[in-house]
Amino acid sequence: MTAATALEARHLVKDFRGFRATNDVNLQIREGEIHAIIGPNGAGKTTLFNLLSGFLRPTSGEVALFGERIDTLPPHAIVRRGLSRSFQISSVFPSLTVRENLLVALESPTNLPKQFWTPLSRLEHLGPRADQILADVGLGDAPDRLAADLSHGEKRQLEIGISLTQEPRVLLLDEPTSGMGSEGINRVIALVRQVARGRTVVLVEHNMSVVSELADRITVLQYGQVLASGRYDEVRRDPRVIEAYLGEEAHA
Ligand SMILES: Nc1ncnc2c1ncn2[C@@H]1O[C@H](COP(=O)(O)OP(=O)(O)OP(=O)(O)O)[C@@H](O)[C@H]1O
């Protein structure tokens, strides 16, 4: 493994009672890149994310973060090593404001699931960092809104903000644009670009125009295997990929 590899899967296998959902996956995510994982429904994208983030143990194979194995560690220990996953691990408290959600997350960044006992008034020393993260995720003008009142897209922004409290070097985003209209999608594209500054981002994404806008490289999964991996422009011309997945778009 080279120094420039942030996250690596080696011969990763996951069996569910005899069904092989991840089949000998080798994957190299380079430090600083935005890498999209795509593939048809049931191809094994979520299972792969679960394996990379410690939510599932592999049947065999290894996962390494900056050269060190993490596949035997629980999710919170993986977070401490610098890998966070948004949308799955971060829980927004609807009855707190946007800023209070950030304060609570900053107080206990790796406490999963989160519990908080500290009065919010004692967390004010974390305010400047909370405000910085809110600005980074585009919620700088909404600190006092209740999380319950946020739109779908704004909630995603907050969830990414909560992930950023963990200071991840590698951020996994699970379908960040799902359920959004074009305005929300454009906001998420800008947001992912913003949070990718100085860190590595891996996303599962179904929307191919989002993938083409954001991804430096992509990996295509099919039947739990890597069908192709490389730069978007190269991979999209691969006949096997067109057949398996992109063809659906090309013929649309
Ligand atoms: N806990 C489980 N037990 C049994 N089978 C599972 C389990 N989790 C996933 N699978 C199976 O593994 C395969 C891959 O599922 P996975 O959710 O990883 O695919 P995906 O690419 O994320 O799909 P989608 O795009 O629809 O979200 C599917 O056939 C699914 O039914």
From TrEMBL:
InterPro entries in the cross-refs: AAA+_ATPase, ABC_AA/LPS_Transport, ABC_transporter-like_ATP-bd, BCA_ABC_TP_C, P-loop_NTPase
Domain ABC transporter, residue spans: 7-248
Name of the protein described by the UniProt record: ABC transporter ATP-binding protein
Alphabetical list of PANTHER family matching this protein: ABC TRANSPORTER ATP-BINDING PROTEIN (PTHR45772:SF3), CONSERVED COMPONENT OF ABC TRANSPORTER FOR NATURAL AMINO ACIDS-RELATED (PTHR45772)
Keyword Nucleotide-binding: yes
A Pfam family matched in the record: BCA_ABC_TP_C
GO cellular component: plasma membrane
SUPFAM superfamilies with a match to the protein in the record: P-loop containing nucleoside triphosphate hydrolases
Keywords for this protein: ATP-binding, Nucleotide-binding, Transport
GO MF entries: ATP binding; ATP hydrolysis activity
